Structure formats: C-alpha cells, structure tokens
Amino acid sequence: MSKLLIVDDEFRIRELIKKYAIYEGHEVDEAEDGEQAVLKCRNNEYDLIIMDIMMPVMDGFEAVSRLRRFTNTPVIMLSAKGEEYDRLTGFEVGVDDYVVKPFSPKELMMRVGAVLRRSGTDKKDDGKSRFTYKGLSIDFAARVVTVDGERVQLTPREYELLFYMVNNKGIALTREQLISKVWGYDFFGDDRTLDTHIKLLRKSLGEYASLIVTLRGVGYRFET
Fold it and tell me: Which residues form the Response regulatory domain (predicted)?
C-alpha cells in the first residue's frame, strides 16, 4: 500500500482524489495549502504527493521548492493552467508529472501508478558505480552529480534521464526510447516534456552541456 499526500485548498477536489486513491488501494493524507504540506512532509513519510499550484499561504511551486531541500518524494502537480511557463517552472523546482484541471480522476490514478512504479526503480545503478569525464563526476549508487567539484542538484527525473544516457553513452537514443525508459510506456505527455528536461539538464551540467548531442529527427546521444 502506498501513502499519498493530497494538497489542494478545495475540499471537493481533495475528496474526489481521495475517493479514487482509496479505491485503488492507497492510504491518503491531506493538506490544505503548501505550508501545511511542507510541515506534514517533515513529520511523515509519503510515497507520492499530489500538489495543486494555486493555493493560499504558500503556492505549489514554493512548496515543492522547499520540499526538495529535504526529500525526493515524487510530486504530481495539478494546475488550472496549461502554459509552457507553468510546466517549465514545475520541472525546474522538481515536479515529476503535470496534470491540467479539469482532469479525469482515472487518468490521474494511472499517472500515480506510473510514477510510483518509476520511483520504485530509482536506486538501480545498472551494474556501474561511477562515471568521470574531466570535471564531471557521476556517482550512480549515491545519486550524486558534481561539476568541477560543485554538487549539482537535479530533480529525480533529471537523474534518471542523465543516468540512462550516460549508461548508454555513444548510442543514438530515440525519443521513444528515452520516454519509455525514463517515463514509462504508460506516459501520457508529449515530446515537449522530454525536450524541457533535456534543456534543464544541459543547464545544470554547465560547460558539459555539449555532451548531450541532439540528433535531429531521431533523439539524443551522450558522447565524450
């Protein structure tokens, strides 16, 4: 049984999600705003958080940003908006998936299941322990990435994407391969999600961003 934290200032939304989550066999806790969610996460352990963006006291973006200081618990963001800015901001602060309101509760539960399955395999290191290239160092087991001695903070999804590409360095990886391996076959998004994460990952790698090569019409390749 997985334990979910539902964070939304609207009672009816929390109740709707709670109803479907319990039906799927999950244990549920609730929070009415971001500040309350951060406090609950400091005192409890959750397997996944469903977080609304627009809330009083503390919005979802700020809440996730604070959560990422002490936990990598997967987060699915809920929003009444669908602009690229919201998606980009969400991914930058560490959101794992994004659902636009109004949403289908059944689809949301499918996304919850997909994210939970992915998070259950996060600690795999594919038989390798460390990768080093000049000032770039990746410790797969510890999930630590450093650039010229400075630790780089990545979101859980960025770690997965980087680790998979590095473990397959020199190989042309299609967009379909990357999405299926990192997001899962039941991913509901589109190619823009992959492109956004690649963009953020390159930004985090700084001078080593060029190691991620774009293959037009195909996908990406990590090469040294």
Answer: 3-116
SS (H, E, C) 81-106: CCCHHHHHHHHHHCCCEEEECCCCHH
End-to-end distance of the chain based on CA atoms, in angstroms?
43
Buried b / exposed e across 70-93, counting CB within 10 Å, b at 16+? ebbbbbbbbbeeeeeebbebbbbb
Q: Name the CA radius of gyration of the chain, rounded.
A: 18
Task: Please say whether the beta carbons of 180 and 202 come within 8 A.
Answer: no
Which tokens in the block code for residue 71? 């936990």
pTM: 0.58
d(CA 118, CA 128): 19
Q: Say how far apart CA 197 and CA 186 lie, in whole Å.
A: 18
Please determine, looking at this structure, whether the domain spanning 3-119 carries the CATH number 3.30.9.10: no
CATH class of this structure's domain 130-222: mainly alpha
Each residue of 100-124: pLDDT tens digit?
888 889 889 988 988 887 766 333 3
- Characterize the bridge pairing of strands 219-222 and 212-215: antiparallel
Give the Cα separation of 100 and 133 in Å (integer): 40
Strands 136-139 and 144-147: antiparallel
